Amino acid sequence: MSQADRVASTPRGAVITAITSGKGGVGKTLVAANLAAALARAGQRVLVLDADLGLANLDVVLNLSARITLHDVFTGKATLDEALQPAPGGFSVLLAGSGLVEYSRMTPEVRDKLLDVIAQVRPRFDQVLLDTGAGISDVVLFTVSLADEVLIVATPEPTSLTDAYATVKVLATTQPARPMRLLVNQVQRTGEARTVAAQLQQVVDRFVSPALAAPVRLLPLGEVPMDAAVRESVQRRQLLMEALPGSPAAVALGAAAARLLPP
Length: 263
Hints:
Blueprint: H1 3-8, E1 15-21, H2 28-41, E2 46-50, H3 58-62, H4 70-74, H5 80-83, E3 85-87, E4 91-94, H6 108-121, E5 127-134, H7 138-145, E6 149-154, H8 158-174, E7 180-187, H9 192-207, E8 218-225, H10 228-236, H11 240-243, H12 248-258
Parallel strand pairs: 1-5, 1-6, 2-4, 2-5, 6-7, 7-8
Antiparallel strand pairs: 3-4
């Protein structure tokens, strides 16, 4: 059993969900933070770990000071308990540093440090959300391999869908099968996510699944409408779920979070 498998099989621990995307700019970090707030509101103990180790921005979204980061934990300058911070919305965060070139590649040392952190936090929470970087770098792929479930965030834009397909293909062909969910952000028409999911599923069925032992099924988590409230909350550096909880986007994110709750 690999180290990643041992982490994933730790009994009585959090469900770990990797939130990823094929390309940047689709609202992945905003989705992660607001899903965390909605899960916390439902009574879950939630941690968001900023796994975009070199280009972190979770602190900006949450208006937090990244005084102690994962980098400090990795280098022994701080303990994990010192790095855990409470966030607006009632959940906890582990922030990462930004502009750290040493995390642009997944070295054995960084891999081992990240495995250790995941093993330590898993028993302490009900839900751990890994806010990964975008794309299919070795850092992203290793981080995703630690998760029980994968949530791919995409928009209806053709470039986003192309990159989402590439992400699904790489994950399906290089990592063990596990639930792969899809959240479509910034939709302009109600029901647009169903069309997007159907298009992606059709391409996956044709070009990916035939080469695998079992077909890949994308599980729709929902859609989040284009909403001026999102921009307003970002500019105010406040969680959408806290600042404008009745907005269409906040309501949609709350519904998506409910689908992540255990039965």
